[in-house]
Design a protein that fits this description.
Helix content is about 45%, strand content about 10%. By secondary structure, the protein is of the alpha/beta class. It folds into two domains: about 5-100 and about 195-310, Alpha-Beta Barrel (TIM Barrel); about 115-185, no CATH class. Strands 4-3-2-1-7 form a five-stranded parallel β-sheet, with helices on both faces. It has a two-stranded parallel ribbon with strand order 5-6. Helix 3 (about 70-80) links the parallel strand 2 (about 60-65) and strand 3. Mean pLDDT is about 90; it is low at about 310-320.
Length: about 325
């Protein structure tokens, strides 16, 4: 075992509907009990130990990506009752009304289709119309469904196929174009889908004042930071840091890599702007450093809980969705 974070995204309850990968307050409390609340370090203590090379192999911290409103409404009360604090990794464009398409698109597929499989079928059809049936078919013929994104065991075969089309065939620009077209066809809008998805500046400030660590997650949350030129990467993280510094007392010192995408040059940029601790999005063995601490996705722990019957509530939807 290595010191690591536990990564959370989506929760349901308190007017937030169940969605792929979401858990409720009871499951969150059960997960903390399984990990051991006394083993979980406060965010301040984890940061202090990480910066000083003093983490022990058994040390764990809680981390929340994307500053989602459901995290504040569902998970935060559980942590308050247990006296726990966490890292909150915030992308900041949404504070200026520029919404991360990644989360808006997730909301669209979760709320406008009867099932995820129905969405995947509609999406692939739209992709074939955009780039050509043969292009999509030829690329999918090369897909080894068992090895693609194998570091994320909670993905189903359908999840992997969707992400292959999105990431490897389309790329971010064409993916955004297709999703925008589908949203318009369904009579929806980015603004309506984004309503109540994220926390605001006052809530971020309140978290910081409550002992939580607020960290970087880029400004616009690109899905492939590693593919951006260095000057754009610098802009993403420098803007993110400046925006958060205007809200919290002091500069952010921690970060999490959006979609686990980064390069050695990304790490140099983060060091340049004063980031001392960073987190990956999986537990894959590699060149772990102070800017690459591993994280266990909560879905993996929940699956273990379900397998051994230690979960008190079945209110969990399988997998996570990024």
């Amino acid at each position: 075992m290595r010191p690591h974070g536990i990564m959370f995204h989506h929760f349901h309850g308190q007017d937030h509907a169940p969605s792929q990968g979401s858990i409720d307050a009871a499951t969150f409390a059960d997960l903390i009990d399984r990990v051991g609340a006394d083993r979980i370090l406060s965010a301040d203590e984890w940061l202090h130990r990480a910066e000083n090379g003093a983490l022990q192999d058994d040390d764990v911290c809680l981390t929340f990506d994307d500053a989602l409103r459901c995290q504040i409404d569902v998970a935060l009360p559980v942590m308050k009752n247990l006296g726990l604090t966490a890292f909150w990794f915030v992308h900041t464009s949404m504070l200026d009304g520029e919404y991360s398409r990644l989360e808006v698109f997730r909301q669209f597929r979760e709320t406008c289709f009867d099932s995820l499989i129905q969405f995947y079928g509609a999406f692939e059809e739209q992709a074939r119309n955009t780039v050509g049936c043969q292009t999509v078919s030829d690329a999918l013929d090369q897909l080894d469904i068992g090895t693609y994104l194998s570091e994320y065991p909670f993905y189903t075969s359908a999840d992997r196929r969707f992400r292959f089309v999105r990431n490897e065939i389309l790329g971010e620009k064409r993916y955004t174009q297709i999703m925008d077209e589908m949203i318009e066809l369904f009579g929806q809008s980015i603004e309506s889908l984004a309503k109540n998805l994220w926390i605001d500046a006052d809530q971020i400030q309140s978290l910081a004042e409550g002992g939580h660590q607020i960290g970087l997650h880029s400004h616009t949350h690109p899905v492939a930071v590693a593919e951006l030129p260095p000057d754009r990467q610098l802009w993403e993280y420098k803007t993110n840091a400046q925006r958060l510094r205007s809200i919290i007392d002091g500069p952010p010192r921690a970060m999490a890599h959006p979609c686990n995408s980064y390069t050695p040059q990304t790490l140099e940029i983060l060091e340049e702007i004063g980031i001392t601790v960073g987190f990956r999005a999986n537990m894959v063995e590699g060149n772990w450093s102070r800017l690459e601490f591993p994280r266990e996705d909560h879905s993996n722990i929940v699956r273990e809980m379900q397998a051994c019957g230690s979960q008190s509530s079945p209110a969990t939807k399988p997998a996570t969705s990024r």
